Amino acid sequence: MSRVLARPAARRPRVREAPSPAAVRWLSVAAGLAAWELYGRALSTPIFTYPTAVARAFVHTVATGELWFFLRSSLVVLALGLALAVAVGIPAGILMARRPLVEHAADPYVNALYATPLVAVIPLIVLWLGFETKAKVVLVFLFCVFPILINTYQGVKSTDARLVEVARSFCSREGALWRDVILPSATPFIIAGVRLAIGRGLIGMVVSEFYTTITGLGYMIVQYANTFKTDRLFVPIVVLMAMGVGLTSALRVLERRVAPWMYTGREE
Amino acid sequence: MTEDPLPAVRVPPPPPAVGARPAVAVEGVTKRFGDVVTALDGCSLAVYPHEILCVIGPSGCGKTTLLRIIDGLIRPDAGRVLVDGTEVSGPRPEVAMVFQHFGLLPWKTVYDNVAYGLRVQGRPEREVAAVVPRFIELVGLSGFERTYPYQLSGGMQQRVGLARALAVNPTVLLMDEPFGSLDAQTRELMQEELLRLWRQQPKTMVFVTHSIDEAIILGDRVALMSRRPGRVLEVLAVDIPRPRDPEQVRRSARYLELRQHIWHRLKAEVGGMSR
Predict the structure, then answer these.
(1) Cα-Cα-Cα-Cα dihedral sign, residues A230, A233, A237, A243
(2) CB of B149 within 8 Å of any CB in chain A?
């Protein structure tokens, strides 16, 4: 009898010592980098590279100011395009959700443009607007505006009808109803839309830089690819990755900050 | 059909303030939704100043629709509602509603939720600052001013809902199954709490409920509604003196008598519906 009981007790410590998810993540990254390092060094060909070489190239491009020069022009394009998309997308989304006429009139355009791979219109935009910042900002705007618009629309539409009735019951005017009920209720949706827009905006930014003037991280990538400087080619890629991860997780934090009631009881 | 088992309790309608003008008069109200559903059909009801009138009836009999019509949120297809002698044509500040779903704004603190009605009605911030803490204290939530609704239990959330409705100083309070989503113990505590509040602020109340017990404990009169399309079948005077102690009320002969009578009438209605 005691032996039967002893067995599960002896096993339990092993279960408890299961590695934490964070530890597994870090170990996985470390193992991946190590494998890449070993394989890259063994291969020793100019079209492949390895992490320490990339790190060296990173330090070099930072030291010469080259990275900041290209990054700055990319950031300007991204920030302007995104700001424009927010400024247009949120009011347009609200208008579409509240005015059926606007909704039905705009719906086909929004759906068609959102479904179109916007990469296809880049040559057209370049043809119309040239190779300068203006064309790139417009492209980033086009990439960003639809997720913001559609999410805002959804957010306004999904406002709890019961709360709207509460507002009416207390004799709220339409303007106050917007301020007190509709906008706060749509805010988490809007922020989620901006988060999606950032991901798409980064794509728009890089691809438009492939096609346009000789600035930006996109140009840096093309240039080093053409000259087989693989280690330096990885620098803008890593920077883009960091930007994507950083901006999206910052917005996730913001999402939780502005709408804590949406996450109670659903914590990980 | 089922015979009325206790005809003795049938009391002719207007007892409490006979002769007074009703605070709320529902006159022949009919409401249809689409072509199929008739929620209310010629529903009439009078609520007198400072009384609690409980409305009870089978599910889906149009009780909530009736409250929404009294509040002016929806218009009846026929008939009219008078509040203080004037016809209701839309929401008005002297009528406030407490909702079954609480209806608190999740992005506002307890303080701002209680202040909501006052602010939306354009009362000066000085008045808000004077009134809100008083009502937060009245419902026993002092110290929770800066808490958000999602951090409170159901009972506490409905206290906020009550304070919000009382804060605008309405003459009529509409209670739409306010304790219907609370657990049994919390529900009984809230009933006692409401009786205490009513003693301090004897508002005219229309209290919709599913619970026979609740209707007798709280009401001066109980209006029994038919199954859909809803009409008022009968109005019973509860006739149990106030102040009431719910536990004593539940042991009284009058309580049992009323309870049995209401239950038989409701059973007949529900039985007719499922047929």
Answers:
(1) positive
(2) yes
State chain A's maximal CA–CA distance in angstroms: 85
Q: 3-class DSSP state for residue B98?
A: strand
More confident residue, B3 or A62: A62
> Cis omega before residue B246 (within 30°)?
no
Sorting pLDDT into bands at 50, 70 and 90, what band is B269? confident
Tokens describing residue A74 = 């990319």
Dist CA A97 CA A93 (whole Å): 6
Do residues B225 and B211 touch, judged by C-beta distance below 8 A?
no
Mean pLDDT within B105-117: 95
pLDDT of residue A14: 53
Cβ-count burial A9-40 (b if 16+ within 10 Å, e if not): eeeeeeeeeeeeeeeeeeeeeeeeeeebbeeb
Largest CA distance in chain B: 61
Size of interface A-B (CB pairs under 8 A): 55
Is the predicted pLDDT of residue B189 greater than 80, yes or no? yes
Query: Which tens digit of pLDDT belongs to each residue from B151-187?
Result: 999 999 999 999 999 999 999 999 999 999 899 999 9
Task: Say if B124 is an interface residue toward chain A (CB within 8 Å).
Answer: no
Phi, psi of B209, deg, nearest 5: -150, 160
Helix (H) or strand (E) holding A100: helix A100-115
Would you call the peptide bond into B229 cis, given omega within 30 degrees of 0 as the criterion? Answer: yes
CB atoms within 10 A of CB A64: 10
CA atoms within 13 A on the CB side of A6: 3
3-state helix, strand, coil in chain A (%, to 5): 85, 0, 15
Quick one: average pLDDT of A44-62?
88
What does the block give as tokens for B41?
A: 């059909």
Residue A16: both structure tokens together: 């408890």
Radius of gyration of chain B (CA): 19
A260, B120: Cβ pair inside 8 Å?
A: no
CB contact under 8 A, B148 and A162: no
Query: What single-letter amino acid sits at A169?
Result: S
φ and ψ of B96, to 5 deg:
-125, 150
Residues whose CB is less than 8 angstroms from the CB of residue A37 and which lie 6 or more positions away in sequence, other chains included: A50, A51, A52
The C-alpha of B117 sits at a distance from chain A's nearest C-alpha, in angstroms, of 6
Q: What is the pLDDT of residue B94?
A: 93
Helix or strand run (H / E) with residue A56: helix A51-63
pLDDT at residue A12, as a whole number: 52
Does this model's pTM top 0.80? My answer is no
Structure confidence at residue A107 (pLDDT) = 92
